[in-house]
Design goal:
heterodimer; A: 140 residues; alpha+beta; Thiol Ester Dehydrase, Chain A; 3 helices; 37% strand; elongated; B: 143 residues; mainly beta; 5 strands
Chain lengths: 140, 143
Amino acid sequence: MTNPAAFEDVDVGDELPPFHLTLTPEQVKRYAEAANMPGGRFMSDELAKAEGLPGQIVPGNFSLALFSRLITDWNAAATVERLSATFRGLVHPGVPLIVSGVITEKHASDRGDFIECDLVVESDAGDRLVTGTATVQLRA
Amino acid sequence: MSLNLDKSLIGSEFDHTEFPPVTAEHIREYAAAAFETNPRHLTANDAELVAPPTYVVSLRGRHFMPGNLLTVLNLRRGFDAGKDIECGVPVRVGDVLTATSTVHDIYEKTGRSGSMVFVVLRTKITNQRGESAAVIDQKLMMR
């Protein structure tokens, strides 16, 4: 985690530092179990294929969680107010992923100081597998 | 070509579940499995521990969708197309959370591959004080 950035220190166009990861089948299974998602498609290739899928897939909720981590890694004092994701393609374990984001808007109100972000999980081949947005409250 | 969707299910409640009190063990287990790095989700003491924003997706009620949804819409299966979490008050150890799920919207979109039906299932999660902990919209694409 980096030192918290204050609202006045960030600008539209600033990037949230991306991180790279390649999920293992065991990590996907562990997340699915912790998230109470017992579907076979999240547990193993064998069970996923029995459901007609090409192999084990990463739950969409896991991608949302990676967006949350991206924000936390960038600014530990940030509070996520809203998080959205559109699942555009299947995410499989073993595929190198890049999670990144950019600030698209700043707005202040009586409720506090907020930024809007565009977020993406993409493969190292450049496929945008999950896109998203977040509304994040920053300290003044 | 319009599918003449039966939208009578919009607004109907299909699940209402009260969960056991939130434990520190489950918050930490979820946060670790989700690769969260913030100490307030992982190593803070129980009184200071706060669930990560996506923790609420682990609260699964008895019914994922209305039992008659596919029949009413004359469709075969659905795919998870997206999710939106509007966070409320922080979820802490000992909170007793209740989830109430309704069919929020049903609409049709036409793309290059033809018409698709989208169903939005809305789950409102409240704590023991009646405060909103989260509103989750799950978007299903159905064929």
